Amino acid sequence: MTSAKQNILARLKAAQTRQHRNSALDQAGVNQIAANRIKETSRAYTETDRLNKFTTALQASHAEVIDCTKDEWPKMLIGLIETRKLTHWLYSEKTETGRRFSQDVCTALPALEAIPYSTPVEQLKETLFNQIDAAITEAHGAIAETGTLVIIPGPEEPRLMSLVPPVHVVLLRKSKIIDTFDQLLEQENWSEAGLPTNVLLISGPSKTADIQQTLAYGAHGPKSLIVILI
């Protein structure tokens, strides 16, 4: 065998050895990251820390967070509607939040144009895309670590309610906030059963920087996200 061939084979063997070594190092790094993650998430937040972390993370993404109570949130929302002149609303008649909105808010504001999402989208499309100012929905839960709302759309509150209106108001019970996404998977048994076919993880209003790297809000969804904590 010529010296040239020997040199080529030697370089190939050396490269293969380095590749195996790097693969082992990469796997070791992955294992270490996983171990650190488990160690980190094993330290549960206190109730106060959980709420503060969730609020701080969500506000950092330009969402509004309003601390309220179960009894007082309709009155607070009435003030917000009057201040921001949000006259056309979408709500669900099939949820507790929607019924409270209809009973307390709509009664107090008779001039409010509030439409229940109870008709097929084909019939509602014109109103939904061209007239509605805001929609109110419930959150299934939330993740403190990332400031993320967990919303599971369904027949009661279809997905378009949280994706189309310029302003999205979400009612979230503080007791539904958990620490991490890992806990969400475990709590809902999604690790074993798999994720729902339709689940929304929302960490702020819609935004994009596709055009000239300039951040713009509302390009692909709500321009404003308002979370009411009760």
From TrEMBL:
Q: What organism is listed for this UniProt entry?
A: Oleiphilus messinensis
Q: Which Pfam families match?
A: LUD_dom
User: InterPro entries from the entry?
Assistant: FTHF_cligase-like_sf, LUD_dom, NagB/RpiA_transferase-like
Q: Domain LUD, which positions?
A: 51-230
Classification via Gene3D superfamilies = NagB/RpiA/CoA transferase-like (3.40.50.10420)
Q: What is this protein called?
A: LUD domain-containing protein
